[in-house]
Amino acid sequence: MASRWSGSILGLLEKALPAHCERLRTLASRARSAGDDELVHDLRVALRRTEALARLFRGLPGKGDGEEQRASARTLRRRLSLLRSEEVGRALLASRAGATDTRLSALVFPGDLPAVRVEADDVEAVARALARWKRRLAAARGGAFAPRAAAETALLRRTRLRLVRLVRKLAELLPPDRKTLHAARIAAKRVRYALEVLEPIEPRFRPVLRLLRSFQDAAGDAHDLVELAARVAFVAEADTEAGLASGPLARGLEADATRALLSARAEGAALARPVERLRKSLGSPETR
To answer: What pLDDT is attached to residue 287?
Structure first.
């Protein structure tokens, strides 16, 4: 990897801010139209990308810039996490138990889905925060950011340091075992979204990005199966009548979860060496 990324890192941020803002406003429009089956998923991905952008470039052009954007995106994403997890769990159970087994589904997931909705105004608030950051960045270009070359150098050094920290944390968790798989999955998400931010100026991130996505998918599948297997097993043990219906299902889910965990760990093992190479290629900047 070249000692300097190809293209302007400052220019990347200047393009990314309005693009993220527009994406969030499109999602807000979808929410106003009563939403759709993929809205929660698409919004959580967009919010993760906003967090990654803010995590890499916070403090630019001045102290505190990016912090509001990261916090607002994170808060909204976390509010939607419970809803997304239960949506996935219910769909996974239906695919294995059959949509007609309503009694079992009601026991495993009692009541309606959590009362969490995508409010268009909340999404718009994150978009407005990004727009404010964009205006501050534009205003600074004629002041503190002059000359531009100096800003490029400082931003490059700071961004590399932040990326190195994310990659180093992931490298320490690879290859994952059963206890560290969840932590490795979270660390891999952060590295993935950070690399996606920077990919336009460093195409050589693409091979490791493919591996990160593959590991993330496998680890996510394992997580969903482990969670569902635990819920079904609990019902099988706590309710005698339900146990008759869900006992075989619980055993099947436990076996599926075990296989999924082994697959995720294999993906994590395949990721370990490329991540270590990435860490070394980035170097270790000494100053922020």
So the answer is: 40
